[in-house]
UniProtKB/TrEMBL annotation:
Residues 386-506 form the Response regulatory domain. This is histidine kinase. The modification 4-aspartylphosphate is found at D436. Pfam families: HATPase_c, HisKA, Response_reg. InterPro entries: CheY-like_superfamily (IPR011006), HATPase_C_sf (IPR036890), HATPase_dom (IPR003594), His_kinase_dom (IPR005467), HisK_dim/P_dom (IPR003661), HisK_dim/P_sf (IPR036097), Sig_transdc_His_kin-like_C (IPR004358), Sig_transdc_resp-reg_receiver (IPR001789). Keywords: Phosphoprotein, Two-component regulatory system. Transmembrane segments: none annotated.
Amino acid sequence: MTYQEDKLLFDKKTQFLLVALDGVIKETDKNLFSWDIGTSIYDAHPFFEIIKNFIEDATHEEVTYNFPCIHLEEGAIEKILDITIKVSLQEVVIILFDYTVKYQEVNKIAQQKNQSILKAKELKLKNKYLLEKEKFKNSFIANINHEIRTPLTGILGFVEVLQKTQLNFEQEELTRIIKRQSKHLNAIIDDMLDISKIETGNLKIIKERFRFTKLIEGFKETYTALAKEKGIKFETYIDPNIQEYLIGDRTRIFQILNNVLTNAFKFTEEGIIKLSVSKNYQRSNKLSISFKIEDTGFGIQKEDLTNIFDRFTRYNNDKSISGTGLGLAIVKNLIDLLHGDIKVSSIPEKGTTFDIKLPFNFEVRKTTPEKKKKQYKLPDTKKRYRILAVEDEESTQFLIMKILIGQGNFFIDVAINGKDAINYLERRNYDLVLMDLQLKDQDGYKITSMIRKNYGDKVISEVPIIGFTARATESERDKCLKSGMDDFIAKPFEQEDFIYKIVKQIAKKAAS
């Protein structure tokens, strides 16, 4: 634009008025409003009545008054103005600046800001609702976990007892099916809990030194046997340049590989499954390892690859193949927590390949022989040891009695609440107490605390106590030990582990 064009554009947005002290308009350019010369400014708009006060207060010095964002109308004309009024003893000068567009834009921004604030408040309320909903969901899952694990303990326990009796071929097969399906149900519960922990940020990554090569050898042994049952092949390869001992979260790495391998075996009916482990790179004491799991199974359709890691997603609709659709969602979340990466490629009817990269650390140190699980024996195998089971579930009571009496070395008493437990302990000497953590009258922690603190008699106060619960978490285990218990058994349990822990505590107490 030229200077004259700029000036003209500016002139069209301003109007100057020269007004006599009696309010009569002496001069005006009529750029904005068509007020005539000789008319009163007070008739133009009520706003200008304010000038009368300014004239009364006038002095020898000119005084300027500024008024922003004033709405003036004349017929159909409506404008938003900044108004400057200069008052002296001789005359009044009024300057109108048309900022209608500017103020409309500002008002629009203000409205958008208000809407943004309202949306933010709405979002905050929604988030509060979602958090409360999530809290309820996690509480529900935790309670369901406990309620399911308790009867599941009885099912698995009695199946193991039944398997040790004289069964014909058909009965053996039926018990195997019951045990397999029960373990599958237990795995589903574990998956639900893991997803819940991941979503709430309660799943902790624990880095420790472990024998990496043994972890892979364990997969080789387990899945070679499974492959033989299915009539397929399973091959493993591990890069010889990978250190024997690495630092990482062994439990989560096992969980990742186990879930992907389990999926591969589910969807492969013939051919081969391969697990290849190789080193990507090594810098200082850090290295990256690649895990490739290949199968010749059903494969995954291209459109399903994008949501394969979503919860409750199954990429095969064969209902005969069991699964919750949580396994790969857990895998993806765990890999993200470990700062790793996972990619999947597949050809329908040809097979699927999972590529997983995970970071590790390692220490250069002399290899020490791996500690073997210490074996314990009862001090006197001819003696019968008395055990108090504090348990209010009838089926679990019967299971404990069946397992321990079958060993031939134990007497069992059962208390169904804390009051009975204390009465038993005061009347008899016990070699060990199995303490359920969730009883109807009071929890096992309080009963344990009473036993440890309220008795001067060491036979009572120092009796070995093993916590017994369906809440199979690390935090629950830590809580047991802090409350004064000597060990922890999670429901459902393997009978071998159950007996081992009981014998261990009795043997340790006898040796002290």
